[in-house]
């Protein structure tokens, strides 16, 4: 019996593709359904939506069968506004498309919208966007997480089948947790950064936000790979497999005391512990481990990432691209100053100043150099841990989605939302967040991390737990 586009909205992307390829679902009708839902989006999740379906959609025989794709605003997309959530780049139309987006398009996916985000990916709530905050489809009074909050909200609300985000310190995993979705940060270097508007180049990584682990694996399968235009890209060591694992027999799971104890809300802890019991029931062994330097990761990150941001964002000067505001006195320095003062938002300015200070003469060794040493220690901690366990499990975030405006005047409280995700980013290892249940009616995320290039391992483990937990990722679709 043919599947109607309205019915298909609650199917996973993998299921939708199968329905298109079997002839049970019309790809053009599905694209138009998603396009119309995105255009009527009440969560401010989109900064651009296609006016109509392309004249020709990819054939149903292509791997991704024309399935609509939502793309975070910081990915360059030829002829489509790519603004990175900033007024400084308002209306910018790149002359090329980011490699990760192009690879998905080449495999048959079709971009139907660009998603809202924290400006230049700097934020944990999507309240820093120059285009207004995004709201959470589970509760519109709460944040969707950040910085890929628009991508997460779009998928959770049923306005996108799946979405592309970026993760620097947790910007895929934390929004996925807050919105009851799956979010994967691949190993650093496995996916090309070419065409991504940079925040912190040694940390930024593109990845999927989806409604199932199988969907995330399918996206990664076509995104990963070495790119000669990105010298840090090396691709994965083995092809990505869409997971089918249903048990965890023989899997050794480590739970670091430093990332699963103090500061975690009671409801989040209860959901996390219930997920660990599910893992044991599936055959896994769960042991306590230690990552002694993990508590210092947040401090190190907020030296390293702003330092790289201060360098990367120096290119936005009003000369080559982006908005340009002339000075009253007509001077070059005045033009720089006015363009950047009026173009950047408060959080971006805060991080540029932090980063510039950390890199300045007399302070480089005391701050940036020490932060790099901490990063090395964190890498060593993970290497030691993975000698005795296969994967590491933590809550994805210490709380559920918080209310809009509740942390905007307290940067430290906002930064603490990434406490559990930043260590994996500093180490460059893959990590995935899956829903583990609800706390007071709001989604809770479970994070699984593995050694570098262990994507198939963590995808398989996540899939087995996902099936056992049985969370309804379509729960916020209306």
Please, could you describe this protein's structure?
With 478 residues, this protein is α/β, with parallel strands linked by helices. It folds into 2 domains: 5-258 and 269-290 and 384-469, Alpha-Beta Complex (Amidase signature (AS) enzymes), CATH 3.90.1300.10; 295-373, no CATH class. The chain has 15 helices and 11 strands. It has helices at 5-8, 13-22, 27-39, 99-106, 149-156, 173-178, 213-223, 266-281, 297-312, 332-343, 346-359, 364-385, 411-415, 422-427, 455-469; strands at 46-49, 68-72, 110-115, 163-167, 182-185, 205-210, 252-256, 285-289, 391-395, 431-439, 442-449. It has an 11-stranded mixed sheet with strand order 1-3-2-4-6-5-10-11-9-7-8, sandwiched between helices. Helix 7 (213-223) packs antiparallel against helix 15, helix 9 (297-312) packs across helix 11 and helix 9 (297-312) crosses helix 12 (364-385). The longest helix is centred in the C-terminal third of the chain and has 22 residues, at 364-385. The radius of gyration is 21 Å and the shape is globular. The two termini are 24 Å apart. The model has no long low-confidence stretch (mean pLDDT 96).
């Amino acid at each position: 019996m043919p599947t109607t586009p309205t019915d298909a909205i609650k199917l996973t992307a993998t299921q939708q593709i199968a329905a298109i390829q079997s002839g049970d679902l019309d790809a053009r009708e599905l694209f138009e359904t998603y396009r119309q839902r995105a255009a009527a989006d009440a969560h401010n999740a989109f900064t651009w939506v296609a006016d109509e379906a392309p004249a020709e959609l990819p054939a149903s025989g292509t791997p991704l069968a024309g399935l609509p794709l939502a793309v975070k605003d910081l990915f360059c997309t030829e002829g489509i506004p790519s603004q990175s959530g900033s007024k400084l780049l308002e209306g910018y139309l790149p002359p090329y498309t980011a490699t990760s987006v192009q690879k998905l398009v080449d495999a048959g996916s079709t971009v139907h919208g660009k998603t809202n985000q924290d400006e230049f990916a700097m934020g944990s709530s999507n309240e820093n966007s120059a285009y207004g905050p995004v709201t959470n489809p589970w509760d519109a009074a709460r944040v969707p997480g950040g910085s890929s909050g628009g991508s997460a909200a779009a998928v959770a609300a049923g306005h996108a089948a799946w979405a592309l985000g970026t993760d620097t310190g947790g910007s895929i995993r934390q929004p996925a947790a807050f919105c009851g979705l799956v979010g994967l940060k691949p190993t650093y270097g496995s996916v090309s950064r070419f065409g991504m508007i940079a925040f912190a180049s040694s940390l930024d990584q593109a990845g999927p936000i989806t409604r199932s682990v199988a969907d995330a694996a399918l996206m990664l399968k076509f995104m990963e790979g070495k790119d000669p235009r990105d010298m840090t890209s090396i691709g994965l060591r083995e092809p990505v497999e869409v997971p089918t694992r249903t048990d965890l027999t023989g899997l050794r799971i480590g739970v670091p005391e430093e990332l699963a104890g103090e500061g975690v809300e009671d409801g989040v802890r209860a959901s996390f512990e219930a997920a660990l019991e599910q893992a044991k029931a599936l055959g896994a062994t769960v042991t306590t481990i230690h990552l002694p330097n993990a508590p210092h990761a947040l401090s190190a990150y907020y030296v390293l990432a702003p330092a790289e941001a201060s360098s990367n964002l120096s290119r936005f000067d009003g000369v080559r691209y982006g908005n340009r505001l002339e000075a009253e006195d007509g001077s070059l320095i005045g033009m720089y100053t006015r363009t950047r003062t009026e173009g950047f938002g408060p959080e971006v300015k805060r991080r540029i100043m932090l980063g510039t200070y950390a890199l300045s003469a007399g302070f480089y060794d005391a701050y940036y150099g020490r932060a790099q040493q901490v990063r090395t220690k964190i890498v060593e901690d993970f290497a030691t841990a993975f000698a005795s366990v296969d994967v590491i499990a933590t809550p994805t975030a210490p709380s559920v989605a918080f209310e809009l405006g509740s942390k905007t005047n307290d940067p430290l409280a906002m930064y603490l939302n990434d406490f559990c995700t930043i260590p994996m980013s500093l180490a460059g290892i893959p990590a995935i967040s899956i829903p583990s249940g609800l706390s007071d009616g709001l989604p809770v995320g479970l994070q699984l991390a593995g050694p570098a290039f262990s994507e198939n391992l963590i995808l398989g483990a996540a899939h087995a737990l996902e099936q056992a937990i049985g969370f309804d990722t379509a729960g916020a679709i209306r």
